[in-house]
Amino acid sequence: xxxxKKIGVLTSGGDASGMNPTIRSVVRSALYHGLEVVAIKRxxxxxxxxxMTPMHAGSVGGIISLGGTILYSARAPEFMTxxxxxxxxxxxxxxxxxxxxxxxxxxxYRGALDxxxxxxxxVIGIPATIDNDIYGTDYTIGYDTAVNVAMEAIDKLRxxxxxxxxxxxxxxxxxxxxxIALEVGIASGAEEILIPETPTDIExxxxxxxxxxxxxxxxxxxxxxEGDEIGGGxxxxxxxxGKTGFETRLTILGHMQRGGSPTARERLWAARFGFIxxxxxxxxxxxxxxxxxxxxYSYTPLADAIKKDPKIDEIDLEIQKALSI
Length: 325
Ligand code: F6P
Description:
Elements: E1 6-11, H1 19-32, E2 36-40, H2 44-48, E3 52-55, H3 82-94, E4 99-104, H4 106-118, E5 123-127, H5 143-164, E6 167-172, H6 179-187, E7 192-194, H7 202-214, E8 220-225, H8 232-244, E9 248-252, H9 264-282, E10 288-293, E11 296-301, H10 302-305, H11 314-323
Parallel strand pairs: 1-2, 1-4, 4-5, 5-10, 6-8, 6-9, 7-8
Antiparallel strand pairs: 2-3, 10-11
Helix pairs in contact: 1-9, 5-6, 6-11, 7-8
The structure holds 6-O-phosphono-beta-D-fructofuranose (F6P).
6-O-phosphono-beta-D-fructofuranose (F6P) binds at residues 14, 105, 129-131, 173-175, 226, 258.
């Protein structure tokens, strides 16, 4: 492989808190290793439409605590076309970019894979999505902040739920995955958690809620993953209110889970992933997604990283059940 002198970095897909410290780490780790860096704005949009700017150490100063992404993000359907890929390749050549670091989730990885299959650039993926649904890594950037944002919101819901003796449904994001719901459910002491990875037995949930009330529980919190097969928070709310007769309210936490200042855990993984991604490139790795897997850094082929992710921990499900009696 020809030696790498200049890299491009971009953020793509749904933004996630922690993208900024990740950009900072990529840029400064690259400079530290003697590489030049170009930032590509608006993800693959900027790669196709030549929206790029050279980066130096000061370009990423003061962003470690900022949510969002200073490079902006976009979902770019045009990048899935031959023409879009060709435009991107022309711009890579125009700016003498030898390799790419892409920060994002499975859609970002799909784009990267397609690009590297057409044109032979080394690409390294850094997992960043609040959904935590990337295969081959225990952790994705954005997940911890999303869980903390949701936990703080649910703590507030519990206050009002207890005052009024109500049942609250909190719908959290996650697309087709239930990781946010599971972790925030445990962290906020939810009575029930509905996630797409496990079948939702509504009759059983109703029984548990009623038994709780008979024992003197004043209120209940049910965390529902947006992708749960029951139909998300709206359907869960209708069913639970209808079948229990409890006064029930729905709060959809939505995009607020994507924002906010990154947590300490987020910033730490951002620093690590950015550095490891640059090291991976310089070690000759290509078309892999970096990550952390069972205490070690992992390097998963991009083609595998976009597979469905089966990492829901059975013991967490049981812990939630045990502690919510
Ligand atoms: O993948 C991140 C995510 O926030 C999902 O949890 C959610 O389903 C989706 O993106 C929302 O997408 P959009 O921002 O396009 O509405």
